[in-house]
């Protein structure tokens, strides 16, 4: 294999440093920032009363002590749940002795709070926000997302440097809605498999960044090269094994999304 010239690959923490702390909690995102991650990934869902919260699954059953669909619950319902104790307490023996730390590891996180954390990070940290269940709400997820980005001054590019936020989705329609309302916000088209329409490395119109899953990259590195030849930046998820990190580096992808940012940064010599 020919090795690409050394270049900086952006390391993005998937649901925060989610190997070390419960996914999508403030603790996981703080840890990712401490670990030196270049960016943070999160999934957004709309609650019954219109708040964007960071929860991966349609239901809260796996990651909390509650039950039910996020879309059927209000923010106050979610705030009463424990989103951290499902993760092994042995991993961090002292976290339950400090009430503030306990809350950061167990409370549902809103997108708004994450935007505040990033604003106060003290260094540039990019955000990769994935819209979940966008068809269920027919545009309301994107509308609320763009409202928040605007409030934080993130709906337009900064005077210099890259746009600090990008929106990702498996739904081309969701990305289209984002571009229609905020044309300068970069969009990432996520792919779990290669659909026949995309075999030649052409993605839906308007998309500039491809987001293939690691399985695609491992099994079809030629497809990644096609995407690159067609001019797309490539952001790969979810890259946790050293061999996969190396393959991504060899292919010269732009970003790696990982549950273990510290280990990936070390492997990349950072
Ligand atoms: O970063 C993209 C990746 O997170 C998509 O898959 O299921 O982890 O949201 P999932
Ligand atoms: Ca995601």
TrEMBL record:
Organism: Streptomyces antimicrobicus
PROSITE patterns to which the protein is assigned, alphabetical: GP_PDE
Protein name: Glycerophosphodiester phosphodiesterase
Coiled-coil regions listed: none
Domain of life: Bacteria
Span of domain GP-PDE: 9-268
